[in-house]
Amino acid sequence: MVELADIGVLGLAVMGANLARNAARKGFGVAVYNRHGGRTDDLINEFGSEGRFTPSKTIADFVASIARPRPIIIMVKAGKPVDDVIEELIPHLDEGDIIIDGGNSLFTDTNRRFHYLTEKKLRFIGMGVSGGEEGALEGPSMMPGGTREAYARIEPIVTKMAAQVDGEPCCTYIGTEGSGHFVKMVHNGIEYADMQLITEAYDLFKTVYGLEAPAIADIFADWNEGELNSYLIEITAAVLRKVDDTGKPLVDSIVDEAEQKGTGRWTAQSALDLGIPLTSITEAVFARALSARRTERAAVEARFPHGDVAKRAPSAAEIDAIKDALYASKIVAYAQGFEQLQVAAQQYGWELKLGEISTIWRGGCIIRARFLNRIREAYASGTGGGNLLLQDYFADAVIKAEASWRKVVGLAVAEGIPVPAFASSLAYYDGLRRARGPANLLQGLRDYFGAHTYGRLDKPGKFHTRWSQDGSEVKTSD
Ligand SMILES: NC(=O)C1=CN([C@@H]2O[C@H](COP(=O)(O)OP(=O)(O)OC[C@H]3O[C@@H](n4cnc5c(N)ncnc54)[C@H](OP(=O)(O)O)[C@@H]3O)[C@@H](O)[C@H]2O)C=CC1
Ligand SMILES: O=C(CO)[C@H](O)[C@H](O)COP(=O)(O)O
């Protein structure tokens, strides 16, 4: 009798194929299927000896080859393909089978699919997966959302497939509905901010100080030894060090147009819906949009040429100042991202455990970093409610970095180098630490043109001034 597979993987492009190999290497029987069978053949021909694979050329055979209740990871392009695949699967499934969408789906789509499949007595898990091609194979960070009992069925498999840090799997139950994909979306938003901050530091070293890529690589490699230690800082050094077949740094020949698949934009859109000042991530999304206007940028540069920047090698103190600016801005980006998780949890009725989320982001995923241990500690100590900036470790780090942060933003502004993520993070910090800001005037203006009313510091209630009439003030509510 043929042994049934423990899990199925449908969609065998880079992520699906590597997740299937990961599961097989961990000893699970893995059923595999791809719409175009060539990918299935390639996987089996190249890696079939790595474990117990059951390849199929039809969905019916694929489903039939998995032990019930069947856990099936679908790893296809986000959007309509996910709905198409779900519809193709449904006629072949039995009550209690579990479809696990491991792609980067929009969380509202996952909410919809969760309820749709629940009505059909099928179970649905929206599972964020981070780590790219290598992580999928070696151990990603996984963020599964759905019912707790559906998660219990897949837990022994996914916790074994996930990256492990200090003996703990980088996978935990996130919550119901689309919460797993929401958390992955915010992860990606933070990834956008992290990368934007790195490129701003690179731009300063290159454009203001005239450093070549290998010298900048050395700086990032050095930073990776300290508190900035992270996967993205590590690979920045590797990318900057790479030379092409002409012997020149590859990075100097890469087109300066950032692409995006949507998760950063969704994070910013969600922040607007939830009313969260998610400035660092949103600026990172806008910076990608501006970078994509390459032809327009060339034309505008011709009309508004830059003056020459007097380039000179940076002193050790100037390098440290950029490091401080990057670190403080990073703290702000994470504080904003974690606030978004907190507010979403309240808004959508999800019990997101921020300590556990920071724990599973410590390994496997793109934003893995030493820094996440600090966030985990803040939540573990029970003092993690509210803004992360107020936690002692982060507050001390920002206070220590503040003078350098201002200097670096000032230098960039003076030299005409855009640093939107450094600057907006600093503006957020400055805005947040002012008990009294200038919105009193704004309220006055709103009341003037639209009778929108305002509150007063000296008495309770809401008021309107008859600005263009007799100038008198009326109380509009208590
Ligand atoms: N690449 C990465 O680093 C990461 C990707 N992700 C997410 O994981 C998912 C998979 O990513 P990736 O591996 O890069 O692959 P792609 O996003 O490039 O998707 C390709 C896969 O989708 C399948 N597909 C597309 N349309 C359909 C359809 N209508 N019906 C059935 N199958 C379809 C393709 O099948 P066929 O071969 O037949 O065309 C192929 O298997 C995506 O949601 C992505 O956003 C998540 C983390 C990291
Ligand atoms: O999910 C990921 C990592 O966590 C992907 O790499 C992500 O799709 C990259 O996003 P973009 O193409 O928008 O930069």
Comma- or semicolon-separated keywords:
478 residues, 12 strands, NADP, binds NADPH dihydro-nicotinamide-adenine-dinucleotide phosphate, binds ribulose-5-phosphate, globular, 6-phosphogluconate dehydrogenase, decarboxylating, 3 domains, single chain, seven-stranded mixed β-sheet, phosphogluconate dehydrogenase (decarboxylating) activity, 54% helix, pentose shunt, gluconate utilization, alpha/beta, Rossmann fold, N-(1-d-carboxylethyl)-l-norvaline Dehydrogenase, domain 2
Structural domain count: 3
If classified by CATH, what would the architecture of the largest domain be?
Answer: Orthogonal Bundle
Widest β-sheet, arrangement of strands:
3-2-1-4-5-6-7
CATH superfamily of the largest domain: N-(1-d-carboxylethyl)-l-norvaline Dehydrogenase, domain 2
Per DSSP, the total helix count is 19
Q: How would you classify the helix and strand content by structural class? A: alpha/beta
Mean pLDDT: 97
Q: How many E-type strands?
A: 12
Structure ligands? NADPH dihydro-nicotinamide-adenine-dinucleotide phosphate, ribulose-5-phosphate
Can you identify the CATH class of the largest domain? Mainly Alpha
> Per the principal axes of the C-alpha atoms, what is the gross shape?
globular
Which range best describes the helical content: under 10%, 10-25%, 25-40%, 40-55%, 55-70% or over 70%?
40-55%
CATH topology of the largest domain: N-(1-d-carboxylethyl)-l-norvaline Dehydrogenase, domain 2
Name the quaternary structure: single chain
Alpha carbon gap, first and last residue:
77 Å
User: If you compute it from the alpha carbons, what radius of gyration comes out, rounded to the nearest whole angstrom?
Assistant: 25 Å
Fraction in beta strands: 5-15%
Largest sheet: 7 strands, mixed
Which parts are unreliable, with pLDDT below 50 for 5 consecutive residues or more?
none
